[in-house]
Each structure stands twice: as structure tokens, then as C-alpha cells.
Amino acid sequence: NRLVLPPVAQAKTLILHDVGSLVYEDQQRLLEWIERADGRTQVVSTCATSLLPLVHTGMFNATLYYRLNTVCLDLNA
Question: How large is the greatest C-alpha to C-alpha distance in the chain, in angstroms?
Fold first, then answer.
């Protein structure tokens, strides 16, 4: 399944479930969408596993990780 993003002007809050399962092309599209939103919307994302190991192996976009990782809640601790 491809990531479907709403028009930036219509989104106040974008909720993404299991962001770690996004293919790299969709990660890039999401990062570009966030940059176009330029602070006009908030993004809430979830992931069942830690994204940092995926960043280190190149499977998750590092810039997107740092944009999403503003507030991190680890519920497994």
C-alpha cells in the first residue's frame, strides 16, 4: 500500500500508524510533505519497534527520523 497524504492546507493533525513499515520512497514523500507543511500541521506517528536501528542500517530516512522524533514516548519500558 502506498502512503496517501492529504493536501497540506487541509491537514491540522496527521496520524501515521507503524511509520517504520513505510518503504523508503514513501518516507521521502512524507519528509517532503512535512517540509511543505512548514509547522502548520502536527504529525503523530507510531512504530512497534525502535526506528534508530533502521536509521543506522539505512532502512529508514535519517532526516525523517529526526523530524519525527521531537517527543518520543517509549511504552515498552
Answer: 37
**Which pLDDT tens digit goes with each residue over 10-62?**
878 999 999 999 999 999 999 999 999 987 889 999 988 889 999 999 999 99
Residue 11 CB coordination number (10 Å): 15
A 10 A CB-CB count for 57 gives: 8
Q: How many Å apart are CA 43 and CA 14, to the nearest integer?
A: 5
Cβ neighbours for 50, distance < 8 A, ≥ 6 positions apart: none
Single-letter residue type at 71: V
Give me the residues paired with residue 64 across strands: none
- Predicted TM-score (pTM) of this structure: 0.84
Q: How far apart are the first and last CA of the chain?
A: 31
Grid cell at residue 8? 497540506
CA distance 70 to 1: 26
